[in-house]
Amino acid sequence: MAKKKKTKNANPKQIVRDLRDNRKQQKTQREAMVEQITIADAKIDQFDEMINTLDDKFPPLINEINDSIDAVKKAYDDRIDAGCLSPLIWQLQETKTVSSKAYSWAGGDNEFQTWKVVKDPDQRRQINYYGVKYYRYPKNREYGSNVIDEINNASIDQMTSVLVLFDSNSADYVGTAEFGDGKSIVSIGDFITDDLDDPYIFSTGNLPKVVGLGTTSYPEDKYTVSGFTTAATNIIYSDTKTGDLSTYKPGDVIFSDFFPAGTVIESLGTSEAEIYFGGNYTTPTEVSFAVVSNVALGTTENNLFTIGVLETYNALYLDTFTSVGAANSSFLIVRGPDNKDLQFESTKNPIDPVEIGIVKGKKTGKGHKVKLINNGDPDKVAEWREVQQEPEPAVGAGFVEYWVGAQSWPTYEESERSPVGGGSTAFNYTLGAAQYVPEGFTVSTAIGTTIPQGNRGTTSVSPTNPSLNGCSNLTNTISDKESEMNNTISENEPKIKYYLKGTKAVRELRGEEETTAWGMLQGIAFIDDKRKKQKEHADAIDDFDWGEFGFDMETGD
């Protein structure tokens, strides 16, 4: 009698069932987290409104200060431009020794100096612009709406569903960047809108989803050509007055009230036509013409036709046709937190790296911290790994520079030679009249030779304004503009600091809610990853023949 095979205690089918049940439970957890993000985001939006209101106060006050700084610079520049003072000096660039038989008249070795006319560094002055600098953590972001990125320059024609991208980094949106990793910023299923609160291009409640990424042909660049056409014909003739049809190509688009929308050039050629030049004077002239895809709706002479040059651009294909067109507009890429393909790493640091920039334009309201600066550092956006104790990048509002000037203008006397005469090979050397020399003028002279090498000098007589007419008034203007600048700074700086005090408290409150929302976002990403792995494990166990190895294949019910 054969021995009965003993059944093992483990039950693969029950393990699979448990995995699938856990996935359902985790889906419920995920939905709860989405709700918490929504609540936190509602609170964040309230704080955003307060912060934006305060931040909007900064640019006008800052601009007034910086405009007064520009006025000071202009006053000094005007005095220089009027020939009242000079910012220029002779500056030694280098000294070097040259050994050559060519300089045997100076002993074979000769020391040369190179001098250049430059702006005098001792006369340079700098005034730093004012600005409000923000510091932005990664957690300082949108949550409920989950704005992925902003397209700054794109167009879409009325009753079409193709968004044409003109941003310099448009390839990054569709994943065709030449040296990129092939990943696209935009994902299938993302929403596109021109405004979160009040969209105009796409109707509220019917925002389009991205259904494709790629390229399209589009006439972004448009030019004018003057010419004529006849009703019921499909030919446009160029009259050579403005533009020339021969410079365009088949496929380029015709924009004109005399042709239906969508009319394109099909072919090109030349012909002889009578061109009217005024005064009842006409002459047969060879002109270019274009055969187009539709017949003209009327007859016209001396008309301007707009030609759209067809080029290939990156594009997003949408599932919704727009009711209105938009040219060179900005659009937001929106990915909801319930998107199954939410691209978020659960291990991302909410406070690293820090983005640093100046509060202005679309940067209003950004950042967990802002402060007034006047450091002269360049106006740029930089990334700071603060948690790694890296030095803070130099970010500021920039500066202006000007030169006070002095009553001293560089001159140069050119060395001139003439033959001694009488069969002698010797020369007489004399210095010519002193000439004013401009910035950048450079001379090289030999030291130690008895032969005149030219003479560097200066003069107190202005080349353009020897009588110094109007200079006193320009100096008075400088004093006035400096006083106005100091008064503006004294008046506006306390106001800016007052608004900074208010926004500091609100930003800290917003930061607390952003921490909550970030935690939920991390949780969602973690659950999504876990559910994906659980499905893979359940499928793998379910597809394996465990009965062959003596395991119970019953469900356990």
Question: Can you give a write-up of this model?
Answer:
- Helix 2 packs across helix 4.
- The chain has a domain at 147-335.
- The strands form five sheets. Strands 5, 6, 7, 8, 9, 10, 11, 12, 13 and 14 form a ten-stranded antiparallel β-sheet that branches. A four-stranded antiparallel β-sheet has the order 16-4-15-17.
- The radius of gyration is 37 Å and the shape is extended.
- Strand 19 (409-421) and strand 20 form a beta hairpin.
- The chain is an alpha+beta fold.
- The two termini are 32 Å apart.
- The mean pLDDT is 82.
- The protein has helices spanning 12-55, 58-81, 170-174, 471-542, and strands at residues 88-99, 109-119, 124-128, 131-136, 147-156, 162-165, 191-193, 210-229, 235-238, 253-255, 265-276, 282-292, 300-318, 326-334, 354-358, 369-373, 382-384, 399-403, 409-421, 424-436, 442-447, 455-459.
Summed up, what is this model?
The protein is α+β, with helices and mostly antiparallel strands and 557 residues long.
**How many H/I helical runs?**
4
- Average pLDDT for all residues: 82
Number of strands: 22
Radius of gyration: 37 Å
Going by helix content, strand content and strand pairing, the class is alpha+beta
H/E element order: HHEEEEEEHEEEEEEEEEEEEEEEEH
Give a short account of the largest sheet: 10 strands, antiparallel
Strand content: 25-35%
- What distance separates the N and C termini? 32 Å
Shape: extended
Helix content: 25-40%
Q: pLDDT under 50 segments (min length 5)?
A: none
